[in-house]
Design brief:
This protein is 52% helix and 18% strand. The chain is α+β, with helices and mostly antiparallel strands. The model has no long low-confidence stretch (mean pLDDT 81).
Length: 433
């Protein structure tokens, strides 16, 4: 190793010694200028030698060989570069260890992990991704991911960069794969792939259980309802307590029947295949009928319901669409106070049709909005007990819209009313001429 407390001073002193000494020798021989020139030449040759040693040493920097012995400024340069080389090697070793640990840990995951660059080319994937997606290393590295997952739905999902919802596809091995994607860096993507066949099987078992249980409950409810229909006309001769009990039993049986009807409908929607054959449904006529039905059900609750609709034909299942819009409008009527105002709009917005139900009711707590489409979730329990319902209406709406490639948006603030918006894409409607 080289050491010098002041490398610049050493170099300046060395330069002065060489040049002045050469000049003095030249002066003694009456050739002072030649002496200075020879001194400068000697100093330049010394610098050239140091540069040559430096260049030869840099050839072996990967081996981290000891730097050449030198003093002054060059010794300082050699030592400094040697120190930086050691620090860089230590940093690279640590970074390599971190990367290796990250790769080893992701290789233990049962989910596939894939990283692509900004152009969608494969950069790295773990062992599970090789098994789930049939990727081969290193042959597939650098290839576009869309060339290996040849599905137009996946390609569109990958390119649109809207990754709020996962994508589920049936791939080559016949298992459903769920894709979650995230953007990072400069349009690079982290993709997680998961085999959800077991989850789908469990969901199927659950929905079949609900459907079977609902069917089985209908028989005892029918018997109970038959006896109540027989006893209630004779209830005037009963004790008032019995009469009140029979009346409450009838209300609960009606509630159970409504619940079973909604459960069966929801189970049917969950198990049905996506809609392929669609009917043309006149939107204005459908909404007018739903509004008339809601006003009939709540005839004792005066409210103003306004309908604004373009001449649009929705393409879909008429009964399912009727059920979805009926649930939303009935909810607005139920939860809006007397003499309230409800506006139903069906208008074009660029490449979509929006069906909006807007009320000036009490509004919804923001913490409840994301859970409103869950089964049996009814938000404010104190208010839910006062207003009849099954808690399945918006779950039905959600599944109907999914089957029609549409989305449900809920916008609300406490005290400012609510807006329930159904957004249908371009291929799901036609504008009447």
């Amino acid at each position: 190793m080289n050491s010098d407390n002041n490398p610049w001073r050493h170099s300046i002193v060395l330069f002065l010694i060489i040049t002045l000494g050469s000049g003095l020798i030249g002066f003694l021989f009456n050739h002072t200028s030649w002496g200075f020139c020879l001194g400068l030449l000697g100093y330049i040759l010394w610098l050239s030698r140091q540069l040559y040693r430096f260049q030869q040493w840099l050839k072996n920097t990967t081996l981290l060989s000891e730097p050449p012995e030198s003093s002054g400024l060059w010794g300082h340069i050699f030592d400094r570069i040697y120190t930086l080389q050691k620090q860089e090697k230590a940093a690279r070793k640590m970074l390599h260890g971190v990367i290796k640990r990250a790769q080893d840990s992701t290789n233990t995951l049962t989910d596939g992990v894939v990283i692509t660059n900004a152009q969608g080319l494969l950069e790295w994937w773990n062992r599970s991704a090789s098994q789930l997606l049939n990727f081969r290393y290193p042959q597939d590295r650098g290839l576009p991911i869309s060339h290996l997952i040849r599905d137009p739905v996946f390609k569109r999902y990958f390119e649109e960069k809207d990754y709020k919802e996962p994508l589920t596809l049936m791939l080559h091995h016949g298992h459903p794969i769920e894709f979650h994607m995230t953007l990072f860096g400069k349009n690079e993507r982290l993709l997680l792939a998961r085999d959800v066949s077991r989850l789908q099987q469990l969901e199927k078992v659950r929905t079949e259980f609900v459907a079977n249980a609902s069917h089985e409950l209908r028989t005892p409810l029918t018997v109970l309802k038959g006896y109540l229909d027989t006893f209630l006309p004779l209830s005037d001769s009963f004790n008032p307590a019995f009469k009140r009990g029979l009346s409450q039993m009838q209300d609960q049986i009606q509630r159970m029947e409504a619940l079973i009807t909604d459960l069966l409908l929801l189970s049917k929607l969950e198990n049905s295949m996506p809609i392929k054959e669609s009917s043309s449904v006149p939107l204005h006529a459908l909404l007018s009928r739903v509004i008339a039905e809601a006003q009939t059900v709540y005839a004792n609750k005066p409210q103003q319901i306004e309908l604004i609709a373009d001449r649009i034909m929705l393409l879909g299942h008429p009964e399912e669409l009727h059920s979805a819009f009926s649930n939303i409008i009935l909810n607005a009527v139920k939860y809006t106070q007397e003499n309230g105002h409800i506006r139903v709009e069906a208008l074009q917005h660029e490449q979509e049709v929006w069906i909006e139900v807007i009320d000036d009711g009490p509004g919804i707590d923001p913490s409840h909005i994301n859970r409103l489409t869950e089964r049996f979730f009814r938000g404010d329990q104190s208010r839910a007990q006062q207003i009849p319902g099954t808690g399945l209406g918006l779950a039905i709406v959600k599944h109907v819209l999914i089957r029609h490639d549409a989305k449900l948006e809920i916008i609300s603030k406490p005290g400012e009313g609510s807006c329930f918006r159904c957004r249908f894409p371009k291929h799901r409607y036609q504008v009447e001429s």
